[in-house]
What we know:
six-stranded mixed β-sheet, four-stranded antiparallel β-sheet, globular, alpha+beta
Amino acid sequence: MGMTMLSHLRLPTVKGNALGGAFRNTFINSAGPASSSRKLLVFSGRLTKPSAGLNSPTRSIPSSPSPSSSVSLLCHSPRTTSTVTTYPTKTYPTTTYRATTHKSATTLTSRVRIATMSSTTAAATAAPFLSLVESSKRAAAYLAVDLHFPSTPGTSSSPLIIGIGSGSTVIYVVERILQLPPTLLSSCIFVPTGYQSRQLIREGNLRLGDIDSHSRLDVSFDGADEVDPSLNLIKGGGACLFQEKLVAIKADKFVAVADYRKVSESLGTCFLQGIPIEVVPPAVSYVVEGLRKLGLVDVTLRLGGAAKAGPVVTDNGNFILDARVPAGGVGSSEKVEALARAMKSLVGVVEHGIFCSGDKKPVVAYFGMEDGTVFTREA
Length: 379
């Protein structure tokens, strides 16, 4: 695998538990088709004490700092060595690194923002130590926000409408959003997909909106339970699939963020709990029989477990069925879409957890990997 050492850039001020410790952040070179997705490691090294004058969150980092107090930037690709040019800008009250990657006739410009904090702010917001997997999930979430959150504020008459989904990685999505400029956030309305995301929005003192009040969203960030190479995915492990799909369909852009366990070659081979299907209670027995006729196996009514006697009840007052796929998975996109249509045609099915071209699938998915890097799949 080819690897090229790039120019040195000094890190912005970072406080809390990370100071003086190992630092690792990742950036995705997303040029090219999903079959040739590549990882681009941007920062890897050990934090050093920054020189005076870098504490201001609006100050650009010098373009030629001393190599003695910097970290190296590395890039690698399985098939080619990329030419990467980096330079700092000052578009947000965070330091912005802009990387332009050239591959053949394709030029991709992406932004990576590393937040800078004053010592007071850092002391109040210092995060606990994260495992390598959690750190990579955070990096994936941060990257998704950095590349896809609108940079131009909305107006009082036309605010930005942002969808916030559910899942453990979405926590880091909201964490990154809260680091954006107040002038940008004050022009946004945030629409949740369920109870968890509603609480995240409220706890972040963000402006809460209702899905039924907005026919269009600018972008939606959500997790995933399984994603195949064509960006078909399964959602609904948290029983929020109807509202998650409604928010995704209304969004101009749907961005998925997950961890390495959700990377799949065929739907149904990783998320072994089965495809979630939201069903009106009186139709459960009929739908169970219909799903079995479609070739799905181990169709079960999801129960509430020790915390609740009886079945799980969704935010819409319905039940959830979990239907497993036979060994080998669903297969091609054509088979995924055919199965999705067949399930939806059953009377009593409110919605199923397959997101595909028949309704909405993400434009890109970011995964925090087990080794601490970030992997991307895109359409």
